Amino acid sequence: MAHHWTAQGAAWLHLVDLDGAFSGAPQNADAIRRIVAAVEVPTQLGGGLRGMEQVRGAIDAGVHRPIIGTAAVESPELVKEAAAEFPDRIAVGIDARDGFVSTRGWKVTTELNAVEFAKKMEQYGATIIIFTDIGQDGMLKGPNVEATVALAEALTIPVIASGGVSTLDDVRRLAAVVDAGIDGVIIGSALYKHRFTLEEAIAAGS
């Protein structure tokens, strides 16, 4: 699939170690290393990166942009340390439900306001925020454009939209607000369910 998407024009590959997200430690390191080695485009990886050893492991595997999610909430100093060691390469993944940050594979919803938390992560050195509206992700209901724009406009670093894209119109809606600071969109289920092709999505977002 990595070869397939890059052949279709993917500029980045977004990788998630779902087993790692639930267990708290990377579980698919060998598969990720093989994916990264097989493609020429940069990759970003989330799921189970809860300490510097795991962040370094992702970098050593060839991942360009490690994504710190749960650990950014539970150990925010990790973001600061990782950003200092790997400038301009650390992303923070913010998964939100009703405006509040969720962690541990979406099992725990905190009392942290997503926008305020994103501002803190920017101050700590995150180079980009990957924002997922949990209510939309995987449901093919369309992205939460308003929440994504609100987050992006509160920051100076860019935001990547994630979750809910089901139609080319969804891509166009996000492309229309790119000036708010939205740098890209992650598309998963819609592509695997053949709602449209990646080439069509790239054209819609151009």
Explained architecture:
The protein is an alpha/beta fold. It has one domain (2-205): TIM Barrel (Alpha-Beta Barrel). Helix content is 41%, strand content 21%. The protein is built from eleven helices and nine strands. It has helices spanning 2-7, 18-23, 29-38, 52-60, 70-74, 77-85, 114-123, 145-153, 168-175, 189-192, 198-205, and strands spanning 13-16, 43-46, 65-68, 91-97, 100-103, 108-113, 128-133, 159-162, 182-186. Strands 1, 2, 3, 4, 5, 6, 7, 8 and 9 form a nine-stranded mixed sheet that branches. Helix 9 packs parallel to helix 11. The two termini are 23 Å apart. The model has no long low-confidence stretch (mean pLDDT 92).
Helix and strand topology:
Layout (H helix, E strand, L loop, with lengths): L1 H6 L5 E4 L1 H6 L5 H10 L4 E4 L5 H9 L4 E4 L1 H5 L2 H9 L5 E7 L2 E4 L4 E6 H10 L4 E6 L11 H9 L5 E4 L5 H8 L6 E5 L2 H4 L5 H8 L1
Parallel strand pairs: 1-2, 2-3, 3-4, 4-7, 7-8, 8-9
Antiparallel strand pairs: 4-5, 5-6
Keywords:
206 residues; alpha/beta; TIM Barrel; 9-stranded mixed sheet
CATH homologous group name: Aldolase class I
State the helicity in percent bands: 40-55%
Runs with pLDDT <50, length 5+? Answer: none
Radius of gyration: 16 Å
User: What spatial form do the alpha-carbon principal axes imply?
Assistant: globular
Q: Based on DSSP secondary structure assignment, what is the total number of beta strands?
A: 9
What CATH architecture would you give? Alpha-Beta Barrel
Count of discrete alpha- or pi-helical segments spanning 4 or more residues: 11
Distance between the termini: 23 Å
The H-and-E topology, N to C, reads as: HEHHEHEHHEEEHEHEHEHH
CATH topology: TIM Barrel
State the major sheet: 9 strands, mixed
Mean pLDDT: 92
